[in-house]
Specification:
alpha+beta; two-stranded antiparallel ribbon; 49% helix
Length: 452
């Protein structure tokens, strides 16, 4: 049974019990925008918690994990059911609220606790009636994000929600909301909540430039010093006519968003794009001749590491992102210099995923406002890099040693300090292309042992 069928069954069960069910929040917004609705937030009026629970359990199983706040979740479906409620700030953090459920609460008061007007629209599931006490439909038509009320300030996470909504919807944000957001701080926010909003931007956003410029305009970029340092960091206009490192980074991340593959690697790729030039502020100098350079910026990866670990507590992210950043110019450089197979294989050992590295290099190129001819030349070099990696079978994997310790044992050797130098020599020969098959590897090993 799909979610929509379950939702309609819930609405009918609630109606039989004397209540009224509305779709609320993002599902109404997405429906009005003609987007696919994947999860449903329902708000039920006219029924106390016990009667609501009795009505709903006639048609589906629910978890009561949020019943103290007037919320229940339908099992095996992305459906939340809530009783209208008031929220009053009582302490720090996102849990510092006094919640008062009221099934008879008026629509305007119930919707006033929401973040943006476009998320404060209600739709009666059975009649289709739209209830819009805060003019969300007007803002939806005009593609504007506007806070519902001053209560917006009670949960600063709404600033980051605004960031990712802009990234996903492409809306403009009302100047009054920008001003209000600039007065808030993320210091009390839980790390996992911050990470979740960034992931929504990076994994779902298609308007990255607008989203991150909002972060700059409301001054929340101050909470991400590695990002803030990019603003007004100059670049050589001959190579970067798009302007400072901030502008370039936004364009690169935008290009990366357009290249996402809806794969488990998307977050790795998007973070690499966002952070790829974080080393430039620490390396950029202007010479006596006025020439701007940033030598070594690709290997200055500490700022990227700081940014990633300040948001995510996952060891796999820096382990996979940082090597990509530190070699992000190598694809076109290796291709243009017609580098050896060994150079390609050693690069694959270091970055692990040359396919992601090639995509990062392409996004970096597309984030430069160069001439069509220059861009075509650079992109052609990246395509040559991709072809070489496929030919060498290192596009999505690292070279695996063809000679192993068990091969030495099979030849009568006892494990000891001699093993590593021999295995290293065999692997080095493999990287140089002396052999490419298991048979060739064992022949090389036998010749090596005969020379001892």
């Amino acid at each position: 049974m799909d979610e929509l069928t379950t939702v309609m069954q819930i609405a009918n069960a609630v109606a039989r019990a004397g209540g009224r069910t509305f779709m609320v929040g993002g599902c109404v917004r997405d429906m009005l925008l003609g987007m696919e609705v994947k999860d449903f937030d329902l708000e039920v009026y006219g029924l106390a918690a016990d009667k609501l629970f009795s009505a709903v359990t006639q048609v589906c199983e629910v978890d009561q994990v949020g019943m103290s706040f007037g919320v229940m979740k339908v099992r095996h479906c992305d459906i939340d059911i809530a009783i209208p409620r008031r929220e009053n700030k009582s302490g720090k953090g996102h849990k510092g609220f006094i919640i008062d459920t009221d099934p008879e609460l008026d629509f305007a008061s119930a919707a006033a606790r929401r973040d943006f007007t476009v998320n404060a629209i209600m739709r009666d599931l059975l009649t289709g009636e739209i209830i819009d006490p805060h003019q969300g439909c007007r803002d939806l038509k005009n593609k504007i994000l506007r806070h519902v009320s001053p209560a917006f300030s009670e949960d600063p996470l709404r600033v980051l929600r605004g960031m990712q909504f802009i990234g996903r919807l492409g809306f403009d944000i009302h100047p009054d909301t920008v001003k209000l957001a600039s007065q808030l701080s993320q210091h009390e926010l839980a790390g996992e909540r911050i990470a979740a909003e960034w992931e929504k931007l990076l994994l779902k956003g298609t308007f990255i430039v607008k989203a991150l410029n909002f972060l700059r305009d409301c001054r929340w970029v101050r909470f991400y010093p590695e990002l803030e340092a990019l603003i007004n960091c100059p670049q050589n206009p001959l190579w970067h006519p798009e302007g400072d490192v901030w502008n370039h980074t936004l364009l690169v991340t935008q290009a990366a968003a357009e290249m996402r593959k809806n794969s488990p690697d998307d977050l790795i790729f998007m973070l690499a794009a966002l952070c790829h030039d974080f080393g430039k502020p620490g390396c950029t100098v202007t010479g006596d001749d006025g020439r701007i350079t940033s030598a070594g910026h690709d290997t200055l990866t500490a700022p990227a590491l700081n940014f990633i670990t300040s948001i995510w507590h996952r060891t796999d992210l820096p382990e996979r992102v940082i090597p990509l950043i530190s070699r992000h110019m190598h694809p076109w450089q290796l291709a243009e210099s017609n580098a050896s197979d060994k150079a390609f294989r050693k690069l694959a050992l270091f970055v692990r995923r040359t396919d992601l590295l090639a995509d990062l290099a392409e996004a970096d190129i597309r984030g430069i406002c160069m001439s069509d001819a220059a861009m075509s030349q650079r992109l052609a070099a990246v395509d040559r890099f991709r072809r070489r990696c496929r030919e060498l079978e290192i596009a999505g994997q690292v070279p695996v040693p063809l000679v192993l310790g068990r091969d030495l044992i099979a030849r009568g050797m006892t494990p000891g300090k001699e093993f590593k130098p021999l295995l290293d020599k065999c692997f080095e020969a493999q990287l140089e292309g002396v052999f490419t098959t298991r048979t060739g590897a064992l022949e090389f090993l036998d010749e090596l042992l005969c020379e001892r």
